[in-house]
Design goal:
By secondary structure, the protein is of the alpha/beta class. The protein has 17 helices and 13 strands. Helix content is about 60%, strand content about 10%. Helix 15 crosses helix 17.
């Protein structure tokens, strides 16, 4: 291995690496190499510019090809995560310890990737110019969201004291009402969704920086999927908090059942991908994916309910799985799910994917993160479809509530209230929010990050879906178009009225007041002169 680092740091790193592994040989000077290195490690302590760093990396890769390059970055950087992920290096480590460096070297020597970054996302560091109304909306929503997150954390798991539980529930209702009031008071129809919760917090809940950690044992589709599955599995196992700014049907499920449902869907997705890898034709793959969705949901529901569980219903024991499968409609489709080929082609056929106008392989960190978002979005939305059916089944089967739902939903009133709120939210999203997003070419994706379900707005062409809207939804889009068309004229009219008011106040009223004041002063002067 070739290690490029300052003298003192290079000797220290070389000593640690060679003492950890006897079969490793670390060379600090290129002229001391007896052949081509298996790995090039470059440690930098200062960064002049991003362009110079990219140029040096390209030069290293061109000279020592095909050896991968491992870049060691300092802890303090004025670059965003997106800028660092664009660097052409197989490994990116920031503020890593000796064991982490050793693991990264082993991964790269086996042909994989290893990314460990603590830089914040670019979308968080950008400052946007806001008007008064938008500033009040965003700042108010952020404050309400922070308080709501604390209350949700205290309610998960629910406290044992009944009085404290009722107080926290009342506080949560107050905060949600305050959020809706802020959106009604200051926010246009399309504003407020992306700011209802922080899209990607720069720090975790314990105050430490959020780390971007990606480790691939190989650079192919199977290794990418295994890494994505492990990351999502760990997020689900640790428990998920709803930070989407909207009500989710899976929130009504017991935490253990919700976790089992998500893990079962993840396992079924793994089996479906294995079956699809035998097919390389894109059209056949898309058709097979659509045809396998009902079976996939049935298998996930079976794993959730248990194949041999029986619960009393009308005085008789009934098998839960058979009853749920006969009552639930698992053939529905979520129109907000993006084209599955964008997720399946890289994971099944190892094809490149389009990210910000660039065709990138699936093992590229930028493509990896986008694939993880697509998988997380499919997982949450599919769980929502199944969760809504489970809530409907529990409405007709009271004994089933103790097995599937949270304790507060044992009461018929609470369950009906939750279902009514979900139905109202669905109608509003279908009639108002979806036409607005289609007209603005945006799509809301759900991503799993640091134990939270968070929204992310993806901009993509949606003209075909816009043309398929119904009459009422078209009127909403037409209203937005009319507002965009009339906004410049209204602004010009207001500006001209303002200019006219300024002229009236300064030139007419101001001069009149000045003349009156001058006349009064002259009259008072004559009176004093006579006296």
């Amino acid at each position: 291995m070739l290690l490029l680092a300052p003298d003192l740091l290079g000797e220290s790193l070389a000593l640690k690496l060679t003492s950890a592994r006897d079969d490793w040989e670390v060379v600090l000077r290129p002229e001391r190499l007896t052949g081509a290195p298996a790995l090039v490690i470059w440690s930098i302590d200062t960064l002049a510019s991003l362009a110079s760093l990219q140029q040096e990396l390209f030069a290293l890769q061109e000279r020592w090809q095909p050896a991968p390059v491992l870049l060691l970055l300092p802890s303090e950087l004025h670059l965003s995560r997106e800028q660092l992920l664009e660097l052409p290096a197989a490994g990116l480590l920031q503020n890593v310890d000796a064991q982490g460096l050793q693991n990264a070297i082993e991964t790269l020597l086996q042909g994989g990737r290893d990314i460990r970054l603590e830089a914040a996302s670019e979308t968080q560091s950008q400052e946007q110019t806001m008007g008064l109304g938008q500033w009040l909306l965003v700042s108010g929503l952020q404050q309400v969201s922070r308080d709501l997150q604390r209350v949700e954390a205290l309610l998960n798991p629910p406290p044992e004291q009944p009085l404290l539980f009722l107080l926290l529930q009342g506080r949560r209702r107050e905060l949600r009402f305050a959020k809706g009031f802020l959106l009604w008071l200051w926010g246009p129809l399309h504003l407020g969704l992306e700011h209802a919760e922080p899209l990607a917090p720069s720090v975790s809940s314990d105050g430490s920086p959020t780390t971007t950690a990606i480790s691939l044992r190989e650079r192919n589709a199977v290794a990418v999927w295994d890494a994505i599955r492990d990351r999502i599995d760990s997020s689900v196992q640790s428990g998920l908090t709803n930070s989407t700014g909207r009500l989710l049907a899976i929130e009504g499920l017991h935490p253990d059942r919700r976790r089992e449902l998500l893990l079962a869907l993840l396992q079924q997705l793994d089996q479906v991908l294995q079956r699809l890898r035998r097919r390389q034709d894109g059209t056949a793959m898309a058709q097979a994916w659509d045809s396998l969705q009902p079976e996939l949901r049935q298998q996930a529901l079976t794993a959730l309910a248990g194949s041999y569980v029986q619960i009393p219903c009308d005085g008789e024991l009934q098998p839960v799985v058979a009853s749920l499968l006969s009552r639930a409609d698992l053939t529905g489709a979520d129109v907000e799910l993006p084209d599955p080929i964008g997720m399946l082609a890289p994971l099944v056929a190892d094809q490149p994917m389009l990210v910000n106008g660039l065709l990138l392989p699936a093992d590229d960190p930028r493509a990896f993160l986008q694939l993880e978002t697509l998988v997380s979005n499919w997982l949450v939305r599919t769980a929502e479809l199944i969760g809504a059916e489970l809530l409907d089944a529990c409405g007709d089967w009271p004994e089933l509530r103790r097995y599937l739902l949270r304790d507060p939903l044992l009461a018929t009133r609470e369950l009906d209230r939750l279902r009514n709120r979900l139905n109202t939210q669905l109608r509003w999203a279908d009639w108002v929010e979806r036409p607005i997003q289609l007209y603005e070419s945006q799509r809301t994706l759900f991503q799993l990050r640091s134990g939270r379900i968070e929204p992310m707005l993806l901009t993509e062409p949606r003209d075909k879906e816009l043309n398929q809207l119904g009459w009422w939804q078209r009127q909403v889009a037409l209203l937005l178009e009319a507002r965009d068309a009339l906004a410049p004229q209204v602004q010009a009219l207001v500006r001209r009225i303002g200019d006219l008011a300024v002229i009236l106040l300064t030139q007419v009223l101001g001069r009149a007041i000045g003349l009156v004041g001058r006349g009064i002063a002259q009259g008072m002067g004559r009176s004093f002169g006579r006296g």
